[in-house]
User: Which sequence fits this backbone?
């Protein structure tokens, strides 16, 4: 059996939930492939994984994979994931969100999950638009871009998901694209194995809404844009500001060791048990 076929039958609910809902050429299919390849390489059992998603095109990934899955409400994927992780720290919790899901309605949860350094992996699919609900602009829609809610050009500045995660306190922050599929496999694998809050921003494309409205072409042209605009972080340090204009970095952007929330929470639980039993606290 070919390797890709083996992964499909091992990890996907191929007999229940397909065909998928994504537009032909959507980058979510590439991300789904990268996710199951990364998980397979970690050696984790399917029952050891809880995959949580919010609302949006990428949120459908949780429906298609054969793990413990929760398809939650818009912007609240990280809150559900936090509860799951604290209730059962043994589970490897992975969260899939879109750029609007994670950083607009879910923005507050995103920054505080990073600040707490929860032992979770957050994969944020950034296609610069609200794809499922009609193509409204999102927090990552570039300035002057056209969308269903910015017919004369977006007047708001976009912010960087990766930089937001790094500044909020995430242990590991990476950025990849669906064009650079082999690198994306590696980044997701590293993020899953990292202790603490790890974020992978995935630059994808929505040719149905964003590409069409902004005359960027179809999926092939938009994939070529990713190829030409992405610069490996190792190479970017040797380029000038002018050479990096209009481009973005990919790879592992931040990797640091910080206190993990679940470990700190365990200390508090043990202290409370000791206090109840003996009347004395074990905390300093």
Assistant:
């Amino acid at each position: 059996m070919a390797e890709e076929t083996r992964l499909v039958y091992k990890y996907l609910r191929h007999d229940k939930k397909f065909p998928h809902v994504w537009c032909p050429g959507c980058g979510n299919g590439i991300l789904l492939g990268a996710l199951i390849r990364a998980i397979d390489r970690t050696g984790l059992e399917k029952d050891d994984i809880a995959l949580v998603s919010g609302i949006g095109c990428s949120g459908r990934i949780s429906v298609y994979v054969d793990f413990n899955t929760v398809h939650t409400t818009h912007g609240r994927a990280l809150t559900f994931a936090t509860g799951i992780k604290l209730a059962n720290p043994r589970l490897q919790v992975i969260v899939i969100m879109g750029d609007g899901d994670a950083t607009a309605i879910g923005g507050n949860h995103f920054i505080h999950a990073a600040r707490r350094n929860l032992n979770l992996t957050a994969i944020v699919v950034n296609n610069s638009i609200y794809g499922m609900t009609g193509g409204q602009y999102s927090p990552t829609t570039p300035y002057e871009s056209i969308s269903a809610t910015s017919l004369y050009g977006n007047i708001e500045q976009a912010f960087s998901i990766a930089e937001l995660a790094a500044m909020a306190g995430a242990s590991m922050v990476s950025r990849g694209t669906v064009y650079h599929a082999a690198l994306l496999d590696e980044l997701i694998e590293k993020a899953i194995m990292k202790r603490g809050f790890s974020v992978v921003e995935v630059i994808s494309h929505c040719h149905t809404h964003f590409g069409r409205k902004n005359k960027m072409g179809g999926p092939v042209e938009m994939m070529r844009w990713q190829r030409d605009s992405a610069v490996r972080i190792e190479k970017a340090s040797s380029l000038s500001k002018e050479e990096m204009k209009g481009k973005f970095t990919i790879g592992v952007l931040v990797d640091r060791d910080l206190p993990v929330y679940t470990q700190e929470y365990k200390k508090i639980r043990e202290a409370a048990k000791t206090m109840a039993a003996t009347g004395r606290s074990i905390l300093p």
